[in-house]
Amino acid sequence: MVEHSAPDLDSLFHALGDPTRRRMIRALAGGEKTVGELAKPFAISLAAASKHIKALESAGLLRREVRGRTHLCRLEPGPLASAHAWLGFYETFWTERLDALDRLLREEDARKTEPVPQPVTQPVKGDIP
Amino acid sequence: MVEHSAPDLDSLFHALGDPTRRRMIRALAGGEKTVGELAKPFAISLAAASKHIKALESAGLLRREVRGRTHLCRLEPGPLASAHAWLGFYETFWTERLDALDRLLREEDARKTEPVPQPVTQPVKGDIP
Asked: What are the Cα distances from residue A100, in Å, to A13, A93, A97, A114, B77?
């Protein structure tokens, strides 16, 4: 069986596996930011922030543009689309689960509202009026 | 600004950041598997496979059921839905990009097919027939 290797998904999911980096992505969604602006909300050193930015960069999630003395960072959404598509393959699985849950709840509701069945009295042989 | 921490996304994206684990998820999508069956396609030891399986388990992606001497593994799709939803927040970003690209291509097509503009001859004052 031939399996396509997707080495970019490795660095992509690795980049997403950290809350600081996910918050940086969220911040970049609001518009481009300098390295200082990206680092500001976190109680981390500029060096630590720079390491996170590099992880985002190597995952293709961030593009850095040098304007004079300023490094401006911009969100590159393409890899997020790839990850979304990869996960989308499994959508039927969680949808099936939700459908099954929905079915169960409906059945339970139906049982609650249907009239209580009355005991059926069997006519006794030769008991016809 | 209040940020909701989502520690489960950490272990989830970490679990997805490895090609062996992604292939195990794909295998589980085909139905439940024993630990041996999950390990088989990879040139890795059972101990290494077990470590991967534990990473999937702690990310909530795999449920292990003991039946006699057999450990049966099953895909738990819920966390994949969470990751898909997290990424879905950024969908507008890559859609906008694609829309912009689409617009550019259409404009280029239009330029190629539209007739070559003819020089407009301005009517000269007093030149009305």
From this structure: 30, 11, 5, 21, 13
Q: Does B101 touch chain A (CB under 8 A)?
A: no
- The pLDDT of residue A112 is above 50: yes
Q: Which residues contact A88 (CB under 8 A, 6 or more apart)?
A: B84
Measured CA to CA, the distance from residue B89 to residue A71 in angstroms comes to: 26
Locus of tokens 């059945």: A107
CATH topology of domain A6-79: Arc Repressor Mutant, subunit A (1.10.10)
Closest Cα to residue B53, out of B84, B18, B81, B8? B18
Residue B60 pLDDT = 96
Q: Which of residues 62-81 of B touch A (CB under 8 A)?
A: 75, 77-78, 80-81
Boundaries of every domain in chain A: 6-79
Q: Helices in chain A by DSSP H: which ranges?
A: 7-16, 19-29, 35-39, 46-58, 78-88, 91-113
In chain B, residues 25-54 whose CB comes closer than 8 Å to chain A: 25, 29, 41
Segment A57-109, tens digit of pLDDT? 999 999 999 989 899 999 999 999 999 999 999 999 988 877 777 888 888 88
Please say if the pLDDT value at position B104 is more than 60: yes
What pLDDT is stored for residue B1 in this prediction? Answer: 37
Residue A122 pLDDT more than 90?
A: no
Contacts of A90 in chain B (CB under 8 A): 25, 29, 75, 77, 80, 84
ipTM: 0.73
What secondary structure letter does DSSP report for B44? S
Cβ atoms of B94 and A77 within 8 Å: the answer is yes
